[in-house]
UniProtKB/TrEMBL annotation:
Start and end residues of each tRNA methyltransferase TRMD/TRM10-type domain: 1-206
Protein name: tRNA (guanine-N(1)-)-methyltransferase
Organism: Lactobacillus amylovorus
First-listed, main subcellular location of the protein, grouped into a coarse class: cytoplasm
EC number(s) per entry: 2.1.1.228
Function noted in UniProt: Specifically methylates guanosine-37 in various tRNAs.
Membrane spanning residue stretches: none
InterPro entries noted in UniProt: Alpha/beta_knot_MTases, tRNA_m1G_MeTrfase_C_sf, tRNA_m1G_MeTrfase_TrmD, tRNA_m1G_MTases_N, tRNA_MeTrfase_TRMD/TRM10
Keywords annotated in UniProt: Cytoplasm, Methyltransferase, S-adenosyl-L-methionine, Transferase, tRNA processing
Classification via Gene3D superfamilies: 3.40.1280.10, tRNA(m1g37)methyltransferase, domain 2
Subcellular location(s) per record: Cytoplasm
GO biological processes: tRNA N1-guanine methylation
Amino acid sequence: MKINVLTLFPDMFTPLQVSMLGRGLEDKKWDLNLVNFRDFTTDVHHHVDDTPYGGGAGMVLQIMPIKKALDSLPSTGKIIITAPQGKTFNEKMAQDWAKEDELTFICGHYEGFDQRVYDLADETVSIGDYVLTGGELPTMSMIDATVRLIPGILGNAASPVEESFSHGLLEYPQYTRPADFEGQKVPEVLTSGNHQKIDEWRHYQALTFLPAMGMILLDILVLMKNARKSPYFNAGMDRTYRL
């Protein structure tokens, strides 16, 4: 996969070039192309923004340098803009994007884009109902969530399948050595060697996180219908979900 990023601050993307994603870059499992769209300005001061028509606070990013930066790319694949008014990013979107051959992100700054920039994009995406100083951090989050799903990026092929949100649930609690730390013991089932019981325990532990996820009642009812059949189900879970 190739990922292009149009940004005014390419140096901010250093974290994507270390750890597992960095090794993926070295192994050519994905490619990161950072494009500073300030390089495509034509005035002597390299302005990328201007005051909004009709007045108002702040400065608005101009379409011209962004369009020229896009035109300079041999190809773009799906074009994504980060903006507060976009649809909220989630794991399903990361899974879909990970199947693409190429993605291009456009990072906003200042008071946002000239509205005509949005017409250049295939998707406008947000990471939540809050405001940041620019689109670089949201873009890095989405790239991380997407690239880690590319085969070979993570050491264990099962990892992205078992982790939080992959099946609509948060990940189950995890434990490692020591088995007993200051009286806090690892659940006995995890040391039993019975993998079927371990899988059941993990699934029903993950169910306890449902209220925090804000799942709708119908989703909970469907999941809990099967949960009651488990030996790890208890009446307290019914009270937790008020069923």
